[in-house]
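ok new one. same drill as before - structure tokens go in, u give me an amino acid for every spot. 411 of them this time. try not to just spam alanines like last time pls lmao
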């Protein structure tokens, strides 16, 4: 009963914390709520009209929703780049940032699941994803494996930080024997969630654009560049608006991870471009469509020719210590890199796989206003969830939230 009493106290204190704050905090939360309400209106139109309200069709059946899902799986997996140095390699410089990284992973995974629900057309078909009830098709379906690993990783990233914060809330130290095995498991699980997502595309024989042995490793490289880049930007905001101390050397170490991952990502991109264009076959048509257009169809050209130069520029700047150690330059480069990889792993990966179709027909895709509204609202949901988690965690870590045992006080 004692644990439930502490848990109840934690919930009450957390609710009190997240409903109080500065004017900027309330404006931020109000803005996110407004965006989510607009998205709910857009989603209600999609529920009424069906997926025809989006820009998707029977020719291009995966669009903005699955593009964001794929990208956010990588953002979630990137938390491992803080978990491994902190819990496995015992690097204390990462200790202050690791809980923030895991909170970001939880928010990213919630967004992933929301994008899957949006892409399926509505929550009424979710029962298909429940083992033993729906048509789960285990173990043959790669999508089944994706559902399992994503939910498993979500559970790990909720349970480990919760255990640590729950102990700190009681002014106790968390037992390493309890959370370190889970942290080590999460390292392998993080790699698994992104590899399985890559296998989901690689296993579709009729889509030669995705039949690439480098797809899995490149997924990981781009994830370990974009994810920590976002973590750096979030830490910058937290340093500015809260009393939570994040050392410069912590941010600079994460920046080194971003730089190395971005460099590896570019090397793999060059390898892919060589394979597609040095000795092209009819299987290279999707790549030609993406980079140069095909038969006068050029909808994706502005996207990819924006992403690649930004990606290259940000990586080159980060390569030099002088620029990377300048925090203002670092923040700009991380923002550019994040946007570039979002475009490249979204429109640059998902949509071209469908164009041209298996019978050579070209049907272009651009998202509708309804899709864009739902997408932005899901990102707002992720930001809302992360803000709540971060505010509670920071309160506990700063000692502002502590369990008060009334019985002990009376004694």
């Amino acid at each position: 009963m004692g644990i439930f009493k502490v848990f109840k106290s934690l919930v009450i204190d957390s609710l009190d914390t997240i409903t109080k704050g500065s004017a900027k905090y309330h404006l931020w939360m109000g803005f996110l709520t407004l965006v989510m309400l607009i998205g709910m209106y857009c989603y209600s139109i999609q529920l009424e009209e069906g997926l025809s309200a989006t820009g998707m069709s029977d020719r291009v059946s995966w669009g903005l929703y699955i593009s964001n899902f794929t990208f956010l799986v990588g953002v979630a997996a990137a938390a491992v780049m803080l978990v491994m140095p902190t819990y496995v390699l015992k690097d204390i410089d990462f200790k202050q940032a690791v809980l923030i990284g895991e909170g970001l992973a939880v928010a990213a995974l919630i967004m992933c699941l929301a994008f899957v629900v949006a892409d399926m057309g509505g929550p009424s078909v979710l029962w298909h994803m429940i083992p033993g009830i729906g048509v789960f098709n285990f173990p043959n379906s790669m999508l089944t494996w994706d559902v399992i690993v994503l939910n498993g990783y979500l559970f790990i990233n909720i349970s480990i930080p919760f255990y640590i914060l729950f102990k700190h809330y009681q002014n106790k130290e968390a037992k390493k024997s309890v959370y370190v095995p889970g942290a080590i498991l999460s390292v392998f699980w993080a790699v698994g969630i992104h590899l399985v997502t890559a296998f989901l595309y690689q296993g579709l024989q009729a889509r030669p654009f995705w039949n690439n042995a480098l797809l899995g490793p490149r997924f990981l490289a781009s994830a370990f560049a974009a994810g920590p880049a976002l973590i750096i930007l979030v830490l910058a905001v937290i340093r500015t608006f809260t009393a939570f101390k994040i050392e410069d050397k912590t941010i600079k170490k994460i920046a080194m991870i971003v730089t190395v991952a971005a460099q590896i990502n570019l090397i793999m991109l060059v390898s892919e471009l060589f394979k597609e264009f040095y000795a092209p076959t009819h299987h290279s048509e999707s790549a030609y469509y993406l980079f140069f257009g095909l038969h006068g169809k050029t909808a994706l050209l502005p996207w990819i020719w924006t992403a690649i130069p930004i990606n290259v520029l940000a990586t080159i700047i980060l390569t030099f210590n002088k620029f990377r150690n300048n925090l203002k330059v670092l923040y700009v480069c991380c923002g550019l890199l994040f946007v570039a990889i979002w475009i490249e792993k979204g429109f640059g990966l998902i949509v071209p796989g469908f164009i041209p179709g298996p019978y050579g027909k070209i049907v272009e895709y651009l998202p509708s206003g309804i899709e864009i509204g739902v997408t932005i609202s899901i990102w707002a949901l992720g930001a809302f969830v992360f803000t709540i988690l971060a505010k509670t965690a920071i309160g506990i870590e700063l000692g502002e939230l502590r369990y008060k045992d009334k019985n002990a006080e009376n004694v």
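The domain at 10-398 is CATH 1.20.1630.10 (Formate dehydrogenase/DMSO reductase fold). and btw The two ends are 19 Å apart (CA to CA).
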